[in-house]
Amino acid sequence: MKLGIVTPTRGDRPQFMEHRNWLMRQQTRQADADAVVDYPPEPCGKRDLVPRYKLGFQALFDEGCDLILCIEDDDWYAPNYLERMVGAWVRKGRPDMIGCVEHCYYHLLNRRYFIRDTRGISPMMMTGVTPRVLEYRWPAETHIALDCDLWRQNPTKERMRFKELPAVGIKHGIGVCAGIGHRHPNTSMNIKDDDYSWLRSTVDENSFEFYMGIAGELSKAKKER
Q1: Which DSSP symbol is given to 120?
Q2: In a 3-state reduction of DSSP, which class is residue 36?
Q3: Largest CA distance in the chain
């Protein structure tokens, strides 16, 4: 089978893209095709991830990919993330969509996180799709919850529960971000990590140092406001 990965980005946070590329090079199962959909941010911070995802999916399915995994440029992925997701997809009979039961979001500035089940769906950052996804009803280009729309109308979908977190969604507020959780504290992030010890124990050391650098930038910017 041919595996593709798609990353929608906006060219306004190259440091995250560099780290994303490093994470993908560490994968125990390499992707066969990689699409980065990158063009300048829309005026007034318009949220436009929907068309970016669709462009990326179409390009890689045209190349013959059987499964595409969504990789967000600012999030962390375990070294065996691609391997685990492909394995889960095959074991479950190659459904139209594959995702994760539990997901984690971590806010670098607030030093808080949560791990929970978003019932019935999986975030785009932890979702895999087959060509049939292009036949679904896609929302408006400015919609911010593409994952909800695709998962709730999909007739063949499977979510996996992994023993160890396969990924961590990082919230920070740098660049044009899709979710409001980046700039505004999310009340559901109810677990404190004041000294970053949980983050350090979860991600690899290189990634931890990278995120600490980002946290330092955020703290400095906040003080200068």
Answers
A1: T
A2: strand
A3: 53
H or E element: which one contains 213?
Answer: helix 205-224
User: Please, which residues have CB within 8 angstroms of residue 112's CB and are 6 or more apart in sequence?
Assistant: 106, 185, 186, 189, 190, 191, 192, 193
Tens of pLDDT, residue by residue over 32-48, are: 999 999 987 666 556 78
> Which candidate, 165, 127, 119, 160, places its Cα nearest to that of 146?
127
The three-state secondary structure class of 76 is strand
Domains of the chain listed by start with CATH number: 3-224 (3.90.550)
Give every CB contact of residue 1 below 8 A, 6+ residues apart in sequence.
Answer: 66, 67, 86, 90
Alpha-carbon distance of 114 to 192, in angstroms, equals 9
Closest CA to 146 of 176, 178, 100: 178
DSSP, collapsed to helix, strand or coil, labels residue 62 as: helix
Assign 145 a pLDDT band (cuts: 50, 70, 90).
Answer: confident
Closest CA to 126 of 75, 175, 87, 173: 75
Q: How many CA atoms lie within 13 A of 113 on its CB side?
A: 21
> pTM score, two decimals?
0.92
